[in-house]
Structures are given as structure tokens and as C-alpha cells.
Amino acid sequence: MYAFMKLFSALSVLALVNAFPSAESFGFQRRANSTPTGGSICGTKQFILANELPADINNDGGAPLPKPNTTYPVYTALSVGMQNYTCGADSTWGPLGGYTFLFDISCLPQMHHAPFTSFIAALWDAAPPTVSNEQIIDLFEQVNPGTALGLHYWIADPNNATDGKINAVWDFTKSERYVNDTNRANAFLVAAETGNVPDPKNSTVNSPWLYEPILYVNGKKDGQLADEVYRFNSNGGNAPNNSCFPGSVLQSKSTLNFWLFGGAWEDTIH
């Protein structure tokens, strides 16, 4: 429980950074908005994706990560939670989605994103197995509501619910950031996955880095939160590279970053 409380305290630091006047001294301009209507807390024009991705990120196999279609992200998020796996008939682990919690890190300078994410990962990894999803939900609800962005989870393929495929969802519809937003019901997106490369530091332990464009269903975008999502700075999240008993399930702790580009709230970038 001590490690869990340290994790809570560390995440609460984000709320303090967001509230502390010196955020502007880093060049971050906080939105003057007493009636939240989406968007990040601090300006995101300081964030450049190319500075997060190694120049050779697409040289080690997988499907390459393309450049984003817009220059700046609308959201920069810390993701903390679990990746789920199930053991297939061939006795190997296959992805079964997961459930993670997303926090706004736009008030942290970009140079601190990766080390802060690794710091949170170490605390999350040290938390005992007795820490449940319900406790994480409590943590999520207690953190400054402007810092808690939303949830990340998976659903059956909206284009074919019986094909066994799953698609990632980013859901901000219950976030306090959207409490006064008339478009709140559309503050989500369902994504496809077209870019997937090995983690450049430790591909055995850390989950792959991804490019996930929005999914189209019946010719329409499934959600309006963003048009493109990049996943990187992975800490953990992979299944172990060993044989397993068919039908068994596994949870792997995961801490990483998501950057979301485009979407209905792109005009909030400053």
C-alpha cells in the first residue's frame, strides 16, 4: 500500500504543476478558462513528436510510424494501467486489450515527459498485486479533475463484432475537462492500428510503439476526440516470452505516453 500511496502522491504532482504559477516560466501558457470545454491545460505548441522518436525508429522491423498530419498534439497524456493477454491454442500469449487511466502532462516540459513516465512506472511496478482497479479508479477521481483526462480500453471491432479483432478506445466523455462542452458526448475515438514498431530500449519487456489513426465505420469517423494517436515511451506492458496454458489470462502493468493529434478540439491548441 505504501508504494500505491507514493504513486498517488506522484500523480498529484501533476495537479500541483498545473496550479503553480511558475508553469509560465517554462514557456507554458495555461488556458484562462473557468468553464472547461476540452483541450489541454497548458499550451501544446512546445511539443514536437520528432523529438520523442529516435531517428531510426522505423529501422528495426514492424510497420513504420508515419509523421503526423498536423504539427502539434491536442493532448499529451500519461497512461497508467494494465495490458491484458490470453493464451492461445498454440500456447503463446495474444493481446486481449486492457484498461488504463490517462492524465494530462501538458504542463510538464517535454524533456521531462520520458523520465517522469519512467518514474511513475517504477512506483506502479512496486505497488503490490492487492492494489485493484477500483483503487486506481479512486486515485483517478481524487487527482485534480483538470489533470485526469479519461480512460483507455478496447472494444470488439465495430465493423465486424464477430471477427475476434479488438480496437482501442480513448474516452474523455466523463472527464471534468468537458463538463460544460456541448460536444462532450463525442469526446472519444475508436482507432485502427497501422504503425507498430518494437520499443527501442527493451522490446522484450516494453510494449511496441504505435501509430493509431481513427477508425471509419460506415464511412464516418468513430468519434471526434482526435484523428491520430501515437503511443511511445513504453514501460512494461508486454507479455512474458514463454509458453502458457491455452485459455489462461495474464495482466501486465503498463505505463506510457499517448499524444493525440487533430479532432474536434484542435482549435484549443495554443
Automatic annotation (TrEMBL):
Keywords associated with the record: Signal
Q: Which Pfam families match?
A: DUF3455
Could you say which residues form the signal peptide? 1-19
Q: So which domain of life are we looking at?
A: Eukaryota
Read off the PANTHER family from this record: CONSERVED FUNGAL PROTEIN (AFU_ORTHOLOGUE AFUA_1G14230), MALATE DEHYDROGENASE (AFU_ORTHOLOGUE AFUA_2G13800)
Can you name this protein? Uncharacterized protein
Origin organism is: Phanerochaete carnosa (strain HHB-10118-sp)
Instruction: Output the lineage of the source organism.
Output: Eukaryota, Fungi, Dikarya, Basidiomycota, Agaricomycotina
